[in-house]
Amino acid sequence: MMGDMTTAPGPVPVAPQPPRHPLDPEPVRSTKARAVFALGLVGALTGLFVGGVVPATLALQLARQARREAYASGGFLTGAAWLRRGERLAWAGLVLVAVTLVAAVVTGLVRLAEAPTGQDFAPNID
């Protein structure tokens, strides 16, 4: 009985995918995810120069919008990995800005404390 049955060579599909509706859009990468990554990278690279605060802040705001759009798209917008990387870079840029500002304030306070105050008279004058 079983001798006359043949199987086709090749891998057997594990679970057949349900057919997609013809009007469903193709999944595409979010362009905002690319922008978040680019802004986060610029923020991280310029963080020590305090100029990174602007692109890093823009990256975090854009990431919030991109997450909302990706959720609303029902899975047809991809790029979550780029979004996460961009957010991490943006936060790193903001940390670098904070470190630079704290170092500048401490340096300024130390120099202010070392500076002489009042008028400096000669040693033989009361």
TrEMBL record:
Q: Does the keyword Membrane apply?
A: yes
Residue ranges, annotated region (Disordered): 1-27
* Spans through the membrane: 35-60, 89-110
Which portions of the chain have biased composition (kind: Pro residues)?
A: 10-20
Give the keywords, sorted.
Membrane, Transmembrane, Transmembrane helix
Name of this protein: DUF4190 domain-containing protein
Per the UniProt record, the lineage of the source organism begins with: Bacteria, Bacillati, Actinomycetota, Actinomycetes, Micromonosporales
